[in-house]
Amino acid sequence: MATTSLAPRAATYPGRRAWLYEWLTTTDHKKIGVMYVTTAFLFFMLGGVFALFIRTELAVPGVQFIDPETYNQLFTIHGTTMIFLFVMPMMSGLQNYIVPLQIGAADMAFPRINALSFWMVPLGGILLFSGYLVGGAANAGWTGYAPLSTQGGSGLDLWIASLVLLGFSSVLTAINFLATIFKMRAPGLTLLRMPLFVWNTIVTAVLLLFAVPVLSAGLMMLFIDRNYGGGFFDPALGGNPILWQHVFWFFGHPEVYILILPAFGIVSEILPVFSRKPLFGYKAFVLATASIGALGFSVWAHHMFTTGAVFLPFFSFFTFLIAVPTGIKFFNWLATMWRGKLRFSTPMLFALGFISLFLIGGLDGAFLAVVPFDFHVQDTYWVVSHLHYVLVAGSVFGIFAGLYYWFPKMSGRLLDERWGKIHWVLLFVGTNLAFFPQHLLGLDGMIRRIVDYAPNPGWAELNFLSTIGAFMIAVSTLPFLWNVFVTLRKPQDAGDDPWDGNTLEWATTSPPPPYNFESLPPIRSERPLFDLKHGAVMDHAAALPAGAGETHDETRADPPEESLGEPLEGHDAGEARGEATPEVSEAAPDAVTHDERPAKETKE
Amino acid sequence: MTADSHALQVPHTEHEGADGHGDGGINTAFLGMLLFIGSEVMFFAGLFAAYFNARAEALPNWPPEGLEHVIDPFPSGPIPFLPIIATTLLVISSGTMQLALWRIRKGDRTGMNRALAMTLILGSVFLGMQAFDYIALLDHDGFGINSGIYGTLFYTMTGFHGAHVFGGVVGIAVVLLRGAAGQFSARHHVAVEAVSAYWHFVDVVWIFLFLTLYFLK
Lengths: 604, 217
Known about the structure:
heterodimer; A: mainly alpha; Cytochrome C Oxidase, Chain A; globular; B: mainly alpha; Four Helix Bundle (Hemerythrin (Met), subunit A); elongated
């Protein structure tokens, strides 16, 4: 499956047709990853244009050129697009490309299901936007609160269909990642040696697996209410509109971690590489990630404080509790950089932008956990500001950090640093300019999701600043696109490992061959490539599983005789097996060298 | 796919399983099915949550007035005891499915095919009975999906369960066709294992649905 481009049938179509056929029918995780990233970026720009319409209308008080109904559709489609068609597929794309490489696998566990998951995304996008062809797209906000969402035109039905389809795609992707990571890791890559990006992918996948079906159930209920006279959310029929909020946010809160955890993973990959230090507190980081995932299921009703239908102390307490593992991560990141040999290349700048701005988004979110404060700012621009500091300053900065970091792996070419820094400055300033004034507007009581606002003192100025920021964010995309365009016309001269990376994706060529690896380095820590290049050094021993660090001073050529926290007899059994099948590395080109075990990822 | 190549690897030891190196332990495709079932559990959990939410809001008027006896495990319609009979058949079909699995684990293809065919018939009869029950409820009692929250919940929950039974029937049909073509053996039958796990899941969901909708009310 992974070697589609080597399949004989691909050669039977000449020229352009072969190229197109190859991409349309591929099951290669790298090609699918690239298609995910490209599709998601197109939707990012589309959703961005919608945001510009919104901000242009709000630049000054009064209704300028957008009528209220159009405005409702704009913010609904903007939100839905950015979350379901940009951030989620973008993260899926990066994970698709990188995770199999980082675990030393030849492809995903289910390559054809992987292709299916991808192709549902553009289809879901078409469904969502086709609302404009049937008399108006969805207009109930991305949260689709009942009873607003039980009324309205068929744009909302298309919104439901689109989300069910995208949700199914996400569930299949989650299954695929979990099966891949649990079954296809390279020999020696124990769970506590996995790169943090892989760990974050696991937690994200678990969240998707358990949260998305609940949204699907809620969407089905909404569809039945809308089309078959159902009474789920209609009090007149015995239903309850609050039920929608429960069901939606039971999905919706894990969803925000689904959007941010992969960015955490990206940043945790980049900081050690550009600080020339191992990640500080690897195990604590893994535990923090897992507990964020678990706690994510216990806080959904903090979105519903003002309904009066939820037990406030419980949800407030658990919301604060999430700040603990998140704080652990922040200290890990800071300690990773502490006294490191920092290099301020573009990926590092975006990672630093992520850390500094996501801190704001995290803190203003913690404000919202304070019940009386939440009552005050419910449905104001404070909430808009918070979620954009988390999603733009968080996810988007993380995404760009990942794109700059892995672009040389995907294309074989390094993006231009100058254009990258221009991009970073514009995005950093634009994000703060667009979203910080919204904090003040929210505190002052400006309500969100309304086309107009009162000409109160100061509001016009703050809104105008916000609009300028929005346009700066839009403009910041241009140097990035130009950078990609120019770079792709250059020769592939980045080399396999331009950043002096730690993890396995840098051990293969750029871009990797369809089967990913000719051979793998021995994996003795969470930084196998670092060990290979620099010899094993003591300073990352602390990051290893307990008991593993003490004996970890051999160079890579040494036979692996010491115990690495594993039972000795099992280790011996492994060696004996390796000796029993010495021919295996000839049979499979991606067989492991320098290791006592034969390859497990037999190429298909 | 990958699973098959794993089966060709060197013998499994406990050490490998603990390391998670990919050979040994659970089959990849089967793991995929278990994860999928996990997500399906959450889907039905959403529907059950809706049910118990509506019930808690309405108590003590649950079932709502005038609908107390519509959903009856022992109806006196054209087929008496229809829901009980359907439930019994579905539970038996779980047994025949398991029998199919046991047969192929021993390498008995004919036995597996027979048990699969039996399961297929039982599953289809269950679906037929569900359709019959729907028609009876609609015609006889005028009880539809738009008869208030009670009707909405009943038809949504049993309807989505029925859709899952249909999915299972299709899966069993595929496995049966492949079995008839002799594609399974004592060592290679992960599709049978996966469909069997799914079918048991569908059966267990029905038991919870049946107890909730017909007895607990």
